[in-house]
Amino acid sequence: MNAVAGHSGVLLAFLASVLGAGIIVWGLARKSPATLRAGRIYGWLMFAGAVVAVVAMEHALLTHDYSIEFVAENSSRATPLLYTITGLWSALSGSLLLWGLILSGYAAAVAWRFRKRAEDAMVGWATLVIYLVSAFFFGLLVWPANPFRTFAGTPPTHGLGPNVLLQDNPLVAFHPPMLYLGFVGFTVPFAFAIAALVTGRMGEGWQVETRRWTLFAWAFLTVGVLLGAWWSYQVLGWGGFWGWDPVENAALLPWLTATAYLHSVMVQERRGLLRVWNLSLVLSTFALTILGTFLTRSGVIESVHAFSDSNLGPVLLGFLAVVIVASLALLAWRGDRLRSPSGIDAPLSREGAFLANNLVFAAFAFVVLLGTLFPLLYQAFTGAQVTVGRPYFDTMTMPLGLALLTLMAVGPALPWRKGSVETLRHRLAIPAWVGALVLAGCVAAGIRDLADLAAFSLGSFAAAANVRQLVLSSRNAHRQGAGFWRGLVGRANGGMVVHLGVVMIAVALAAATSFGQRGEVRLLPGQSASFDGHELTYVGPGTLRTPAKTATLARVRLDGGGVFTPAVTTFGRDTEAVGTPAIDSSVVDDVYLTIDELPVRRDGAVTFGVIVQPLVMWLWVGGAVLALGAVLAAIPGKRRRRPTDPVSAPVPGVSSAGSTERSDPASTERSDPARPLSGVGSSARSGSSGSGDALPVLIAERAGAEPNERP
Amino acid sequence: MADDLSPPMRTFTSGRRRLPAYALLALVLASLAVAVFTSGSSSQSPAERALAIERDIRCPSCEALSVATSSAPTAVTLRQVIVARVDEGESARQIERFVVSRYGSGILLRPPTSGTAGLVWWIPVLLGVIALAALVSFFWRRRSLDRPMPSAADRDLVGRALRSHGGPGAPDASGQASL
Questions:
Q1: Cβ-proximal residues to A231 (8 Å cutoff; 6+ apart), any chain
Q2: Which of A 651-680 lie inside 8 A of B, CB atoms?
Q3: CA A592 to chain centre
Q4: Domain limits at A574?
């Protein structure tokens, strides 16, 4: 029953995506608005099918319908409710079903958001791309990865339960869905980028349309990756949060290119530059999400994430090849229309900083991609083994990370078009002093490692510079009678909040990895030991039995206060035991306890693994700040009223209601009638500097970029 | 054209503001000098040397963890071997050679910098240098291009436009622009 309902849902979604794609092709070919409008409904049908399938699967999981192979393999009667529900994404075909649900959800959202413009060719093409991608994924669910496959003979009476690592921490309920919301979300900007290339409307229209979609996908991916780090910290027992595991890298790669895009898109909206580059970033972000799926699901790479190998490898690789070839072919075909009307005037400018930022992100992504694929390539060409591990990634990415911290400080202080050393000196004096004092303080505190010193001082430099921007824009907003909070919303200001979260993460990462201490202590019940300034007392052993698991605990009192219980747990009828760490988190440091060796007799001595790492909590706090910043950035900032209003600052004496110092080009973000989807927006700009609207902009930026700061 | 505006700007950040910039530079350089000259990297303790080696060796039964961070039995054993060999005075290279002879070259987490496998280090470095060189030459050429300078008529036009926009002397109120 469940299987029939679920399979029908998947089939409905598949047929809807194929039919929808056909209808849209027909509508585009015939240029028939009515047909194109009719194509919208298939997004909703797809979504309905996916919802039916997911509900059927969850119902099967909750009612222990072991006639379905997937349910028998990934749940058991003893599995607690939460992990029964998350059983949906604890193996390949179920997680593809979740992927399908999210993808069809995005498809329906696009159909709703653009419901009044379905006859627009660009929307039509974008919808077509989304339908085709959906057809691919639902096709996987219909044939090779059918989650509703049933047993041919008599079904088993008991299920196996999910992988033990996936039933030990509630974060498993959040990490994969967040990650998928991010991964899948990049389908929307990808679809619009393809639509822009096909229709030849290369202006900024497609970016403006998809700005928030990209931002939300990026935020979900960021939060998903950080939740994954948190999960691995709490579950895996080695006290780390990032292992440069191939699958972690696969999630990081689209994040890097998407982050680069979120920055460089501002250069294009503002100056019409970097068009090919931006398209390439969006296209490669999507391609990298498919590459990540391929790496995770094909078993070509050994990884802790390879929860199930499958035969999907060749299919996914084929899809990846189609995406890459189609993207490159379209870029080559439209190359002549993509030339920018002008260039970057000076390296010392906002766009120059964004360009540098993009180069660093591109280099970062290249290093991670090369390091991830190199062992495969090396083995293919030489037959020999090589491992590219943490030392490689740490060495190669550290300078890039430091460069990003520097740019985070300098970039926001630079004006568009052309900055001067004087401007920078004026705007960055206080942040630079903050950074220098932190440097001196760290040296005085005995830190000698140059990379750490650079991370802490550049981090505080960047944080101070970003706080300064927020203070200025809040004060500006207040002076214009809008309330301080107005200075925190909008893309640029939200971006500053995101930067603060990133700085927290960078500093915490440097501190935790450089100043962590790990060791072992062997204690009898009642004995105490001291480790890296913390006092551990082994209170005594214990046992915890639930239907799902049996855990041998050791109660440990930390610093004479709370009691923590690291454990060794056996799940269900699994024979292999996994360690369950216990963590005492504080704002200063984390004490991470594991049982490295169980006692022979019940009252015997236990060997504890102890890891003390400073500032770990700030990784998660930084993640929360970052997510908050992303939400603030999505709220519309102050809009300019007329296209000729100065974009940088009010010119004293001019009565136009100028916006704040760094207000973003917010006017482009609504579908302004003066700026339709076609390249009109950019052609208005192509009159190069010195004509049209560029004049007041230039004067405003040069003459009084920061009116409230004048001595 | 924009350069015309910069001389007046220079005046308002000169003098008093230059001194702190030098003080800032001095503070940074002094801190770095202290950090560099007082760090005794040569006098690593045996435990520190062992840890450094352990970080570069993969735990034989794990995917990506080093023996320094893993608590798997194979990692514990290998850790003991490394500590013992460090105590016997073996160099990092000797120990790595021994581990490779036991487990194969895939046991090293840090790929070698020479040979074909060294490409993983050199390709990004090479590309980075090329990208930087291209960028520098791009801006260099842009800079040396003859830029049209605004004529007196242009300035007059701008001045009139400004006056009509914000009343006479509007830009002067900022104390900077004197077009």
A1: A169, A171, A172, A175
A2: 651-655
A3: 27
A4: 516-618
Give yes or no: residues A295 and A146 share one domain.
no
pLDDT at B72: 82
A396 plus A450 within the same structural domain: no
Angle subtended at Cα A440 by Cα A434 and Cα A443, rounded to the nearest 5 degrees: 140
Domain identity same for A81 and A38: yes
Q: Which of A551, A584, A618 is the last residue of a domain?
A: A618
The residue type found at A51 is V
C-alpha distance from A101 to closest chain B C-alpha (Å): 32
Q: Is the pLDDT of residue A707 over 60?
A: no
Percentage, residues of chain A above pLDDT 90: 61
Please state, in angstroms and rounded to a whole number, the distance separating the CA atoms of residues A192 and A529. Answer: 61
Give the mean pLDDT of A494-509: 96
Lowest mean pLDDT among A171-175, A421-425, A531-535: A421-425
Tell me the per-residue pLDDT of A185-235, one tens digit each, with 9 for 90 and over: 999 999 999 999 999 888 888 888 888 899 999 999 999 999 999 999 998
**A426 neighbourhood in chain B, CB within 8 Å:** 13, 17
Which pLDDT value is given to residue A336?
80
Q: A416 and A701 in contact (C-beta within 8 Å)?
A: yes
Output phi, psi for A535, to 5 deg. -100, 125
Q: ipTM value of the model?
A: 0.82
A568 shares a domain with A425: no
Partner B contacted by A515 (CB < 8 A):
no
Each residue's pLDDT tens digit, A261-305: 999 999 888 888 888 899 999 999 999 999 988 887 776 776 555
Whether residues A422 and A384 fall in one domain: no
Cα dist. B61→A241, A692, B72, B73 in Å?
19, 67, 7, 9
Nearest to A363 among B70, B128, B162 (CB): B128
Chain A CB contacts of B109 below 8 Å: 387-392
Contact A391 B12 (CB under 8 A): no
* Distance of alpha carbon A470 from alpha carbon A306, whole angstroms: 43
**Do residue A13 and residue A101 come from a single domain?**
yes
A404 and A269 inside one domain: yes
Look at residue A575 in the predicted model and tell me its pLDDT.
Answer: 72
Sequence letter at residue A197? L
User: What is the CA B60 to chain-centroid distance, rounded?
Assistant: 33
Looking at the predicted structure, is the pLDDT value of residue B171 above 50?
Answer: no
Q: Which residues 287-306 in chain A show a CB within 8 A of chain B?
A: 302-304
Question: In angstroms, rounded to a whole number, what is the distance separating the alpha carbons of residues A525 and B4?
Answer: 80
Indicate the residue among A137, A162, A187 that finishes a domain: A162
Structural domain count of chain A:
4
Please write down the HEC assignment for all residues of A49-114. Answer: HHHHHHHHHHHHHHCCCCCEHHHHHHCCCCCCHHHHHHHHHCCHHHHHHHHHHHHHHHHHHHHHHC
Query: DSSP letters of A132-171?
Result: HHHHHHHHHHHTTT-TT-B-SSPPPSS---S-GGGGS-GG
Nearest-neighbour CA in chain B from A698: distance (Å): 8
Residues A407, A409, A415, A418, Cα dihedral to 10°: -40
C-alpha angle A372/A375/A380, rounded to 5°?
130
CB contact under 8 A, B170 and A653: yes
Q: What is the CATH number of domain B46-110?
A: 1.10.8.640
**In this structure, are A480 and A626 located in the same domain?**
yes
- Phi and psi torsions of A690, nearest 5°: 105, -15
pLDDT in tens, A195-207: 999 998 888 888 8
A704/B contact by beta carbon, under 8 A: yes
Strands lying side by side in the sheet with A582-585? A517-523, A606-614, A589-597, A582-585
* pLDDT the model gives residue A680: 34
What is the model's pLDDT at position A469? 93
